[in-house]
Amino acid sequence: MNRILIAIAAVATVATAMPAAALVNARQLNQERNIDAGVRSGKLTHREARSLRAEVRAIAAQKASLTRDGRYSQRDKNIIHARQDRLAHKIDRMKANGHRGRPKKIL
């Protein structure tokens, strides 16, 4: 229990210290890792992963078009976070939809 509380406190501290753009980038990286993990475990097919990665790239392109000197307005942050929320739910749904790919063996 104490370890969980310490981990939550550490994440909260890092999250408050990071600028908003870094949080968006970290979230994008986590989503890419989640997709890769789904392919490795066989929970995502290659076609599903390709579709999800295309959506990650589309969000990154939109993010790049919205930035002004490396900064985002609050409206822009809300737009990006809303798309990332939808993508996170889509990743979870696809991983649980029962379609299975071939898991990759790690040597």
Task: Throw out a few tags for this protein.
mainly alpha; globular
Tell me what you see in this structure.
The protein has 107 residues and is mainly α. The chain has four helices and no strands. Helix 2 packs antiparallel against helix 3 (46-66), helix 2 (20-41) packs parallel to helix 4 and helix 3 runs antiparallel to helix 4. The longest helix has 22 residues, at 20-41. The protein is globular.
Proportion of beta-strand residues: under 5%
Low-confidence blocks of residues: none
| Order of secondary-structure elements | HHHH
Taking the alpha carbons of the first and last residues, their distance comes to: 34 Å
**From the helix content, strand content and strand pairing, which structural class follows?**
mainly alpha
Summed up, the helix count is: 4
Radius of gyration: 16 Å
Q: Please give the share of residues in helix.
A: over 70%
Mean pLDDT across every amino acid position: 81
Could you tell me the number of beta strands? 0
Silhouette: globular
Q: Describe the largest sheet.
A: none
